[in-house]
Fold:
Amino acid sequence: MFKIAVIGGGSSYTPELMEGIIQRYQEVPVSELALVDVESGREKVEIIAALTRRMLKRNGLEQVKVSVHFTLDEAIKGARFVLTQLRVGQLAARAADERLGLQYGMLGQETTGVGGFAKALRTIPVLMEVARKVEALAPDAFIINFTNPAGIVTEAVSRYSKAKIIGLCNVPVTMHHMIADMLQAKREEVALRFAGLNHMVWVHQVTQQGRDVTAKTIELLCDGNALSMNNIKEIPWPPAFLRALGAIPCPYHRYFYQTRAMLEEEVEAAQSNGTRAEQVMKVEAELFALYADPHLDHKPEQLSFRGGAFYSEVAVELIQAIHNNSGKEMVVNCRNNGAIQGLPNDAVVETNCLIDAQGAHPLSFGPLPPAMNGLTQQIKDFERLTIEAAVHGDRASALLALVTNPLIGNLASAEALLQDVLRINQPWLPQFN
Amino acid sequence: MFKIAVIGGGSSYTPELMEGIIQRYQEVPVSELALVDVESGREKVEIIAALTRRMLKRNGLEQVKVSVHFTLDEAIKGARFVLTQLRVGQLAARAADERLGLQYGMLGQETTGVGGFAKALRTIPVLMEVARKVEALAPDAFIINFTNPAGIVTEAVSRYSKAKIIGLCNVPVTMHHMIADMLQAKREEVALRFAGLNHMVWVHQVTQQGRDVTAKTIELLCDGNALSMNNIKEIPWPPAFLRALGAIPCPYHRYFYQTRAMLEEEVEAAQSNGTRAEQVMKVEAELFALYADPHLDHKPEQLSFRGGAFYSEVAVELIQAIHNNSGKEMVVNCRNNGAIQGLPNDAVVETNCLIDAQGAHPLSFGPLPPAMNGLTQQIKDFERLTIEAAVHGDRASALLALVTNPLIGNLASAEALLQDVLRINQPWLPQFN
Amino acid sequence: MFKIAVIGGGSSYTPELMEGIIQRYQEVPVSELALVDVESGREKVEIIAALTRRMLKRNGLEQVKVSVHFTLDEAIKGARFVLTQLRVGQLAARAADERLGLQYGMLGQETTGVGGFAKALRTIPVLMEVARKVEALAPDAFIINFTNPAGIVTEAVSRYSKAKIIGLCNVPVTMHHMIADMLQAKREEVALRFAGLNHMVWVHQVTQQGRDVTAKTIELLCDGNALSMNNIKEIPWPPAFLRALGAIPCPYHRYFYQTRAMLEEEVEAAQSNGTRAEQVMKVEAELFALYADPHLDHKPEQLSFRGGAFYSEVAVELIQAIHNNSGKEMVVNCRNNGAIQGLPNDAVVETNCLIDAQGAHPLSFGPLPPAMNGLTQQIKDFERLTIEAAVHGDRASALLALVTNPLIGNLASAEALLQDVLRINQPWLPQFN
Amino acid sequence: MFKIAVIGGGSSYTPELMEGIIQRYQEVPVSELALVDVESGREKVEIIAALTRRMLKRNGLEQVKVSVHFTLDEAIKGARFVLTQLRVGQLAARAADERLGLQYGMLGQETTGVGGFAKALRTIPVLMEVARKVEALAPDAFIINFTNPAGIVTEAVSRYSKAKIIGLCNVPVTMHHMIADMLQAKREEVALRFAGLNHMVWVHQVTQQGRDVTAKTIELLCDGNALSMNNIKEIPWPPAFLRALGAIPCPYHRYFYQTRAMLEEEVEAAQSNGTRAEQVMKVEAELFALYADPHLDHKPEQLSFRGGAFYSEVAVELIQAIHNNSGKEMVVNCRNNGAIQGLPNDAVVETNCLIDAQGAHPLSFGPLPPAMNGLTQQIKDFERLTIEAAVHGDRASALLALVTNPLIGNLASAEALLQDVLRINQPWLPQFN
Structure:
């Protein structure tokens, strides 16, 4: 029996997570769910808390306590797991990032490019505060971080605090489901070997019941299967590229390999339906209207359009594997420790790990092939410069981060862009003031 | 249903292995056991085959075919697993190694020092021949190597052939049982983190139900628990050393840290009861007398004095984990691939791995602490020079190997020692002729 | 007294080189200059040979033999230095590269992007042939390579032959002269610490009489000093970028950091004066008209517009340092050997080396800072994939090379571009036929 | 014109150093020599100061000021070079180390084994105090360290202070002279490529006028040339070992490869003439009697028996190369920075460096061959554990250091030995109190 604190408990994703916990309650016997949010999000988090209580009741789990908090201390104290799924500045800040990118003729994606950069600057100080509270009040707890840019945020905490942290993303699990479907196989029969960074991860091998079916999977992809996420446009990969690579890019690689097409799509969407954040705001408004219904006692269908498929699946799997010391293989974001050669030991990478009560232990992978190494190095350098900027409020690192990212990479406008980022996000960037 | 070839099937250990397979037959559904030995070992291997058939019958497994071979081809063809547990030159050669070491005032241990060196020179050519047959006749098979010096032999095959090979040793499993006993816990509740080389491996962490109990285990060891194998003298470790190290050496470390005491014990034993090989010869003679009894249909008690406790446990676990693609964590000898930083990628190391149908995937460990690194590097260098000598018949590498090993390390007598090794083992060293 | 072979002796640069040798004849006592060119370049190489003889005579060095060859063997046999400054397909092929790049909306620069890629594919087979002749006929000779893309070509020979090779570029020496001028100091008082790749090299430290003046130099650059070469547009670097970087980029970095502006300039030049190659063709025609004048017995002024300033300075310095075993510090392209951490040992890098009779010994540099590492890794990966493509005729590597280069990086058109490159250059790409 | 501070100015070596400075005064124009010693060494340092003034006067250099100090501040303030050649506890402490080693049946050598360990514990705190003074009072100064164990002491300062430090030893220069003599060549025609650790360094290549003569040199050594120092017994290396190694060990390697013979020689010497320290005490007494002679105005012949040949040669060469920013190649002890792969970047190594006003820049060497790597790693680990013990007063590191050193390596007596070291040296080990 253990306590879970959910930082950003008022998120529209929370019911997804709660459903996962309820379904696997035997394996993850939670005693308390402590939802934390900011005071300005009081209404939302209380809607979520009430819905959670109804969901628990429907499943005969009234004994699970649901508490609501607007400061960290009480929520974190004594927790076994601290889930971080917060959004500093909320969707309005994300929309501002997206619009700023487009204004400069750049991709305005949430987790990379200038959007990911701005979000990291806003988010890292808050996560560091959570980590310091965990160090003091729940030193054995694991922080399980979903907050994007998940790789950067996880690395900042991993390097600058003693709190234990593991980053989670739904890209690997989504690819797993999709590839199993392509192979017309059960998910548990199919295993994928991932190595890379968050939102820049490759599948290097696919096995089905232990046999290597990587080439077969690539041919299926060459045959028109697009392998995307519902928030990323399904531009197919050129077959010659996939065959030459001998591996499977993740959907987010499109931002780097097909930048122009992705930008055109973003521009068009922004003009017609609004940017992704603007669309999500509408979805969220609808979701909270549903959540507030006192008769609703289950996760509503509509949440599946939100984009976070399988989040609860991986979160509950991870909690279960740690709690039960199970030695399960999972794909998470953690300290590299030499697993991917050529990246620093203290870099956070996304790769297959064995999970037990001590945390995540990455399997040795070796070096990335040349066609993947350079881009990965460049993005990792961007991430590390961004972390330096975010943790120390260092403008030089911030400028170099922007220049290093290939989605920004326009030296001529980098300074102006940085000034705009710092000005627009000024309320959330105490480290630069 | 699959076929297992056992190279060195006439070994006195084979009944141990057979018992393991029989007990876990549901998980390892063997269709054929192909026992291979040299013509001069015909009597022994036929005794073993007959005993195996009786053991199978007793357990209602008459459908498992037991075949006997004196050449490799038929045995290896179509096998899924090729177990190598052979002894080139048999115990007489081992006894000669031991006597040679003592004659030079050196330890004459079978797996390190001059004994391990000589055994590697004799064994590697035969294992390379097995590997070439596997490449040609059973390219998907795994060689599971128990043959000592297991780390060196496994590395030679791993680097100089395309055959898949995993090395096994009963030291990690024996330490696991002993430490669990010390902690008065069930083995499955206790997990050990190993990293090092075969017969030079440390336990870096002990957990019990997921909690770190390394310091507690060290204190138990300081309190007189000796943690040894039944073929290594139980000299206790000085408490201050264990506490400073913060880790647990394996029993074989005594040869390096307590060389003088171990040598004195060897000298005394050689004078009274004979060297270890000479003692084992007597045990073996008794064992084969038992095995030949047509009424014996189970593994006799006396085998437990032979020294190979838990061999069958780890062998069957490994076969099971590969066959069932189970993702189980085990401690085996395999290609380092960056797991232990500072050792070459193609060095074979002994460490915790995730085992599935693709083989062994070591968990990233990071660098060894300074107090362990230097000795490990030195032994690995000895191993690599020995492999060069054994594969290419290169005398310069052979001499440097002897000089590099701290148990030999006597430059003055190294050349004479090398000449003696090459002379005594001349029948088994075609590569030097 | 030694022999120098000049492969591509009919180059318009040759008189520059000859002038250098004549001026420092005491230090580089040449007995023979063997000029080699293709049969179709017979007229040019004979013009150069005649001019060289007149230049030697004017300086009282008639004893130096000047020979002309149309096959490699006689020229290379017994040479101490083999200078490679050839241009496969001549300027017409370069012009085609430039036009092809522009047709795809990409930079068509000679040494990077698609132009550098195509030039590498054409050039590497010829250089490998030179290397094989050197291995056989002059195994102690040094190949001194000026042929662009110099880093890629040098690495191909370094990795795929046993011939000794050092690559030279005039970028470091030009930066040295310019920075000394900016500091109003003599060149010999100013020292620069370079580390990077050919045409992607940074100055990490500037010292003047031993004192660090890096920050002062950066401020001078921020104040409007443009630091360029006469074939690269002088776009100033943003001061905030230079200060954040704390280092000085080379002129070629503009292609990567200011891609759009450089492309616009190329497009405009191509429309008005022709591409760079087309302009150079005119310059060359004028130069050869001058060279052919039987009264000319010195290097004409007009050669300085050709772009190869200081080539002869570094070439003669290098020959002198090797010949005299002088231990001189120079910036050359050679095997990394760990000097720049994070790049492979067998990668060719451009950095400060100690030069003696054994060749070039790079000074240990350590890792590149994050803001430089990623881009460098990406370009090195591009280079290595290009080498695989060029040496083995491997289309998959060729496609991945194009996709990896950030100046190409357009996945959508990469295949079509590759097909165009292979088609246009078909006469010079036997490895792909 | 610059000031040199000499810490340990009362050393009997000082006249050697002074002679070197006087001979090369044009290149090293010293304005002041500030001799520092402890109060108890007042008599000696004043004898040295007076002798130095007479030597200067004889050479017409009365303008060079010679000052004597018993605290660091005034001596270090404004110095350009701080030479450290001190001996904490003086020869009596060294003699105690030697006797202690012999008492335990171990080598009692001054710079390695238990003697080197004890000397490092005594010396590092004093050197750290010097370094802190340099940081504060002469931040641009170079510390030039001769104090043994020079590699360990230099690394301690290099890692734990910001002061610039270069370690010097006379082993490389002595080997250079000896090998040139063997080759019957001038020293300046012969170049040696060193890589290793202080007192554990190999010559990997010998060139004569640029041509590789390594094999020839090895054959000369095989032919009876012993290559030793006048304080190390000349046991010849077995020819087969030298040929297999393909490199030349330094004289100190004998302690590791020929331990027994060296120990026997030490035991015998201790019984007949006294330990090395005891012999040196007599030599020193005689030397100071000579030095005190008011008519002596040059370095006396007898100093050459003291063992420090060529110290002044390398010291003055180094001062000259830094002062004149000369880019000279020298063999010194400095931060590895990747030069020897497999050793940490911050390890101090002994290898060929380019010396200029910025300090020592090691040439990239690559990995050590297997026959050298393991021993080097082990000694470096010993050194690093010793540094941890010395800097932090950490007993666990101290015990592990002793156990790690192959000359001690006797686990059974390690604790007692450590207690004896700490007890005997108690006055000089404030960090352990």
Notes: The mean pLDDT of chain B is 94. Residues 222 and 239 of chain B are 5 Å apart (CA to CA). Residues 113-137 of chain B form the longest helix (25 residues).
